[in-house]
Write a structure and sequence with these properties.
- The complex is a heterodimer of chains A (627) and B (197).
- Chain A has 627 residues and is mostly helical.
- Chain A has one domain: Cytochrome c oxidase-like, subunit I domain (Cytochrome C Oxidase, Chain A, Up-down Bundle), CATH 1.20.210.
- In chain A, 62% of the residues lie in helices and 1% in strands.
- In chain A, strands 1-2 form a two-stranded antiparallel sheet.
- The two termini of chain A are 19 Å apart.
- In chain A, 53% of the residues are buried.
- Chain B contains six helices and no strands.
- In chain B, helix 2 runs parallel beside helix 6 and helix 5 packs antiparallel against helix 6.
- Classes of the chains: A mainly alpha (627), B mainly alpha (197).
Chain lengths: 627, 197
């Protein structure tokens, strides 16, 4: 049928039809426009960045946990950044924490997570041949690639990479003479991030367009898998907030390179006044956190979407509160834009304004709690299959709760003023957003690996990986709550010179460091598993997890266009697991109600009449449409 | 018979679906959203900074009003081009797109003259943020206008290759939307600069 239509359509539109798979190596694997290849490119780049980003944290943890340690053995890698006394250069310590934050937040958990799974799953789960614009999608990856190259290059500068913290507050970041890291390193940071923002915008625009316009027949919004809802809302958040960061960076670039005074005002360096007058450093914080806070949800929502899908599939139960899940994600996405100033309680903000932002911030607990309870109630009395992906998803829920609870404490301006910039904050956001979304990423890789590469990952190694990582992450971040309450400030090179930190918690800090090393080492199990399974893993059946969503109706390794022949139509929501009366414990979305009379509910029998209508609907099939 | 009718449905140009719109147009609209956010951030930054005082007062050079007129005129010619394309009047379409393009260049030149006059008034890019913002707004808008000119060039090329006609209007409509948006964006910025001056 499809071929008949294509040939009919062809004479009028020969020029723009390209259905065949590109056969040239470069077009197929490197400059590919196929969403699956681009997703894998993002995944591999994300993994490489994660190795770099996490090893940085291990290095600065060594410094914090064992301040007297001889670090000479790092000389082959860090060269001049290890001083003659075999210590870590304090300037480089600042560069390490800055780059760790930048890399993990943007390059791993934004590009690596959204880039991989939005690209891979959106077309496959909504029943589309590819993204709305394969070209923009390819462009998005290559902008990210160039941004990555620039950021990576900045690591090797003589003056070091950017070192003002990942939030790059001016004036520190605006004045090259302020710190070594504010010289070329900061310039490259800004250039890299500008390209990164372009990449995210191109990607996000594509995701939104694809989800809204290219759904298959019958795939109404109320039948979308929660993963797609999460990716859609993430892309909308990015579309609205990333341009603001671009504005902020642009003004910062003008301040740095052209001498304007947007953020700079009346500054003396070495007793000499700078010419800048009339700028406002707080302005930067407003602009930065207008992106910065939604960014937290850009990192978090895709992980929550992935978790919804994996938990429902492996608990063999419909997701609890499908509509509540969507509503709470929308709520979180909306609130994300009106809480940014809770990062700025100590900037001398009007306390009344602070209390408004505090109120709005605390409201986020409501949708977050709805989501947590829905995950738990989905698990409740399910026939749980503990696959590695499932374990990581449950781990995510655990981190999301224990990290979220401290959010309530930090959201209170009165408490936050005490805890601001201490390890309490570090513990909070690493649990609720860092570890959670990393677990979402890992869960997603374990779950969709068979779809990506046609092979299964080793489960036993997955279990070992999970337990080491899960226990390891709690061991790293739980103690930080205590050091934070004790007043240990974050970003400090050492705690040896202050009376209040000198003699306490040294053992706890060593413990954290050891736990961090163990957790980091455990990730190599994953890397080995990934690489081994890529070539030698067990071949995957078409639907290894007995899942309902459309991607499992495509061939094991889908070719360009995803489905040979026609795209499946959708008749039901994606969570018909363990439906009473049904033959199997799952009914894929493309099975019409007319084929399942034994399990239909009364109102679903009425829908059978509509099925012919769904079949007759025009396809949003890119291969069938005149351009 | 019925099936035959359906398959014909897929192949001819049909009216817009209710469920979805042309993805390329949708992409253009989302792109516009991101530009709106970029300038929303800029103008908010302007307001926040202005509220803090120490703000330089200066008169906006008159040439910016003239350039605004030119830009509005170019929007009208662009609309004419779209209208001509719908009627398959190719000569008029090419002429109208060309006039729009030339007006765009004229607008950019006048903006540049505005900068020259600002410098004459001793309002510099480096100095009080009131002046800096003026340069940033006009400069960023000019940057986007150049991208609009590139879109126009493609439309002009398509107009000469006859790939734009009454039955293939997507490219023309996208170019028109973007051009009108750039026009409205400037009107917003200009009104904003006058009002919060």
């Amino acid at each position: 049928m499809a071929t008949v239509e294509t040939t009919l359509a062809a004479p009028a539109h020969i020029a723009e039809h390209e259905h065949h798979e590109p056969d040239n190596f470069w077009r197929k694997y490197i400059f590919s426009e196929d969403h699956k290849t681009i997703a894998k490119q993002y995944l591999i780049s994300g993994i490489l960045w994660a190795i770099i980003g996490i090893s940085m944290s291990v290095i600065f943890r060594l410094q914090l946990g064992f301040p007297n340690m001889e670090l000479g053995f790092l000389k082959p890698i860090l060269r001049g950044w290890i001083t003659d006394t075999n210590k870590l250069d304090p300037n480089f310590y600042l560069a390490l924490i800055t780059m760790h934050g930048t890399i993990m937040v943007f390059f791993v958990l934004t590009a690596g997570l959204s880039g991989t799974f939005s690209n891979f799953l959106i077309p496959l789960q909504i029943g589309a041949r590819d993204m709305a614009s394969g070209f923009l999608n390819m462009l998005s990856y290559w902008f990210f690639f160039v941004a990555s190259v620039i950021m990576f290059f900045s690591l090797f500068l003589e003056t070091g990479p950017a070192a003002g913290g990942w939030v790059i507050y001016p004036p520190l970041s605006a004045l090259p003479q302020a710190h070594m890291g504010s010289e070329l390193g900061m310039t490259l940071w800004l250039s890299s991030m500008a390209l990164f923002i372009v990449s995210q915008l191109l990607g996000g625009i594509n995701y939104i367009t694809t989800v809204i316009n290219l759904r298959t027949r019958g795939m109404s919004f109320s039948k979308l898998p929660l993963t797609i809802w999460a990716f859609l809302l993430t892309a909308i958040l990015g579309l609205i907030s990333f341009p603001v960061l671009l504005s902020a960076s642009l003004l910062l670039i003008f301040d740095r390179s052209f001498g304007t005074s947007f953020y700079l005002s009346e500054i003396y360096i070495n007793g000499e006044a700078l010419p800048n007058v009339g700028g406002s450093p707080i302005l930067f914080q407003h602009l930065f956190w207008f992106l910065g806070h939604p960014e937290v949800y850009i990192v978090m929502l895709p992980a929550l979407g992935i978790t919804s899908e994996i938990i429902a599939t492996n608990a063999r139960k419909p997701i609890f509160g499908y509509r509540a899940m969507i509503a709470s994600m929308m709520g979180i996405a909306f609130l994300a834009f009106i809480v940014w100033a809770h990062h700025m309680f100590v900037t001398g903000m009007n306390p009344f304004l602070g209390s408004i932002f505090m109120f709005l911030t605390l409201i986020i607990a409501v949708p977050s709690a709805v989501k947590s309870f829905n995950y738990i109630t989905t698990l409740w009395r399910g026939n749980i299959r503990f696959t590695p992906a499932m374990l990581f998803s449950i781990g995510l829920v655990s981190f999301f709760i224990s990290g979220g609870v401290t959010g309530l404490i930090l959201g209170n301006s009165a408490l936050d003023i005490q805890l601001h910039d201490t390890y309490f904050v570090v513990a909070h956001f690493h649990l609720v957003m860092g570890a959670s979304s990393a677990f979402g990423l890992l869960a997603g890789v374990y779950h969709w690996f068979p779809k990506m590469f046609g092979r299964l990952m080793n489960e036993k190694l997955g279990y070992v990986h999970f337990w080491l990582t899960f226990i390891g992450i709690y061991s790293v971040f739980f103690p930080m709550h205590y050091t934070g309450i004790a007043g240990f400030p974050r970003r400090y090179y050492a705690f040896t010179s202050y009376d209040f930190t000198k003699n306490i918690f040294a053992d706890l800090n060593s413990f954290i460091t050891i736990a961090a090393i163990v957790t980091f080492s455990a990730q190599f199990l994953f890397l080995f598993n990934f690489a081994y399974s890529l070539f030698r893993g067990k071949r995957s059946p078409q639907n290894p997890w007995k899942s309902n969503t459309l991607e499992w109706t495509a061939p094991v390794s889908p070719k360009h266009g995803n489905w040979p022949g026609e795209i499946p139509a959708v008749y039901r929501w994606p969570y018909d697991y363990s439906k009473p009366g049904a033959k199997d414990d799952f009914i894929p979305q493309n099975v019409p109600y007319s084929q399942t009379p034994e399990s239909n509910l009364p109102h679903e029998n009425e829908l059978i009449g509509l099925e012919r209508e769904i079949e007759a609907q025009n396809l949003n099939d890119q291969f069938n449409q005149p351009h | 018979m019925k099936e035959e009718l359906e398959s014909v449905d897929y192949t001819i140009e049909e009216p817009e679906e209710t469920l979805s719109m042309n993805p390329k147009k949708f992409i253009m609209w989302l792109f516009i959203v991101s530009i709106i956010m970029l300038f929303a951030a800029m103008t908010s930054a302007y307001l926040v900074r202005r509220a803090e005082g120490n703000w330089l007062e200066y008169t906006i050079p008159a040439v910016f009003s003239y350039s605004t007129g030119v830009l509005i005129f170019s929007s009208l010619t662009m609309q004419t081009a779209l209208w001509a394309a719908k009627k398959d009047r190719f000569g008029l379409m090419r002429l109208a797109i060309s006039i729009t393009f030339v007006s765009g260049i004229a607008f950019l030149y006048m903006q540049f003259q505005g900068w020259v006059q600002l410098v004459d008034q001793k309002v510099f890019f480096v100095g009080n943020p009131a002046g800096s913002f003026m340069y940033v707004f006009t400069g960023l808008h000019a940057f986007h206008l150049i991208s609009g000119l590139i879109v126009l060039l493609y439309a002009l090329k398509a107009a000469f290759q006859l790939t734009i006609h009454a039955k293939s209007l997507d490219q023309m409509e996208i170019a028109t939307t973007y051009w009108h948006f750039l026009d409205v964006l400037w009107l917003y910025l200009f009104a904003f600069l006058i009002y919060f001056h």
